[in-house]
Every structure is written in C-alpha cells, then in structure tokens.
C-alpha cells in the first residue's frame, strides 16, 4: 500500500479559501467512495499550514472535479509550495477513526 504525505503553507488570509476547496474534495470523495483509498487533511494549529495524507494502491483524486479545482490555484495560494513525500507507517492507533461516544444516560 502506498502512503503519500503533502505539506504546504498558504498565504496569510487564504487558509479559509483553501479549507473550503479541500472540503469540496471530501464531498466528492463521499459520493465516489473509491475502494481501498483513505485520505485525511489536517490544518496545523488552526493556521496556514496544511498536511494531506493519502493511502491506497491507486489515486482517484485526479479524477475528481473538486480536486482539479483545488489544484488549479494551489501555487498561487501558497507561501510555501507543496512538498510531497512517500511515507512509511511506523505505528497507528485508531487513526482517522471517530472517537466512541458514550450512550446518553437515562434519567429516571
């Protein structure tokens, strides 16, 4: 399985725009539901730096219109361009899984 990490920093004032473009990719991914593909995006400290982590044997992202729209202006939005790295998993504990919520208590 291939893992790729991409890190970049957007220009001041462009983080919300970038986040909206990223969220549109997730909407389209949810519709397409590509088998065997996992994808996560993190915004570091609520600031201007973003990290994307993709996992899978294939990459369905270029097929998505929302991803192409995201990529179309990425260099113009960045103060630090995307750095792409292959990643090797060292360990993981419930990564990307929603935290279990306790059932609401019943009131007598």
Describe this structure in words.
This protein has 108 residues and is α+β, with helices and mostly antiparallel strands. Mean pLDDT is 89; it is low at 100-108. It has one domain (2-86): Alpha-Beta Plaits (2-Layer Sandwich). The longest helix has 18 residues, at 15-32. The chain is built from 3 helices and 4 strands; from the N terminus they run βαββααβ. The protein has a 4-stranded antiparallel sheet with strand order 2-3-1-4.
Q: Report helical residue fraction.
A: 25-40%
* Proper CATH architecture: 2-Layer Sandwich
What is the count of structural domains? Answer: 1
Average pLDDT works out at 89
Overall CATH class: Alpha Beta
Shape: globular
N→C terminal distance: 51 Å
In percent terms, what proportion of residues is strand?
A: 25-35%
CATH level-3 fold name: Alpha-Beta Plaits
Topology as H/E string? Answer: EHEEHHE
Helical element count? 3
Poorly predicted parts: 100-108
Q: Could you say which structural class the secondary elements and strand pairing correspond to?
A: alpha+beta
Number of strands: 4
> Main beta sheet: strand number and arrangement?
4 strands, antiparallel
Radius of gyration (Å): 16 Å
The strand order across the widest sheet is 2-3-1-4
Short description:
This protein is 28% helix and 31% strand. It is built from three helices and four strands. Strands 2-3-1-4 form a four-stranded antiparallel β-sheet.
